Amino acid sequence: MIQRFSFIAPVATLGAIFSVATHAGEGSFECLPEGGGRLEMRISGEFEASVDWGNDGTRCEGGPRPDGDALRLMFSRDDDGLLVVIGITGLERGATGAGLLANLTIVRQGMGRFYGSLGADACIVEVHENAAQSADSSTYSVSGQGRCEAPIEAIAREGAIRVAPFAFTGKAYWPDEDD
């Protein structure tokens, strides 16, 4: 149970940072300036959702974890009230691969409901694109698909959801090695 409570602060912080960063601008949002951003997944269990977010209206950000051992991709959309974080272990700038271990976190924004796979071995991801965007050599388009075999547990309370195989194309900022 202690492990579950220690998980909430980092995820809540990610959600707050993501929310502040994405609400700073006015007007409509797009995941990738060049188009093609998306998140597709079906959620069942404690709540039901069919996520089919295209580029327009979807906020996406990402980058390596501070210790550099994983890439985090975050997606949200105002009209759905969800924040989805995909953590892919061992993915480096420009690299692709199959069988990459990952974790998945889903936040029901405004409700205080957090769900997490609680470990980097709960989901498997295949990344088939991790390419620099033409406008900025530090910003990459990262595409792939994944699956989670086990339920995604509620954090700090009882409950769980299941996520069907999912697909994503998001944005990752890979800082220059000098940064």
Describe this structure in words.
With 179 residues, the protein is mostly beta strands. It has one domain (2-173). Helix content is 12%, strand content 50%. It has one helix spanning 2-23, and strands spanning 38-45, 49-53, 59-64, 70-77, 82-89, 97-108, 113-116, 123-133, 136-148, 152-154, 160-163, 166-173. An eight-stranded antiparallel beta barrel has the order 1-11-10-7-6-8-9-12.
Write the layout of secondary structure elements.
Blueprint (H helix, E strand, L loop, with lengths): L1 H22 L14 E8 L3 E5 L5 E6 L5 E8 L4 E8 L7 E12 L4 E4 L6 E11 L2 E13 L3 E3 L5 E4 L2 E8 L6
Antiparallel strand pairs: 1-2, 1-11, 1-12, 3-4, 4-5, 5-6, 6-7, 6-8, 7-10, 8-9, 9-12, 10-11
Give descriptors for this structure:
single chain, 179 residues, eight-stranded antiparallel β-barrel, 12% helix, globular
Shape: globular
> Distance between the terminal alpha carbons, to the nearest Å?
37 Å
Name the average pLDDT. Answer: 84
What is the strand tally? 12
Describe the biggest sheet?
8 strands, antiparallel, barrel
Alpha carbon gyration radius:
15 Å
- Tell me the β content: over 45%
| Share of residues in helices | 10-25%
Q: Give, in spatial order, the strands making up the sheet with the most strands.
A: 1-11-10-7-6-8-9-12
The run of helices and strands is HEEEEEEEEEEEE
Low-pLDDT stretches are 1-26
The secondary-structure class comes to mainly beta
| Structural domain tally | 1
Number of helices: 1
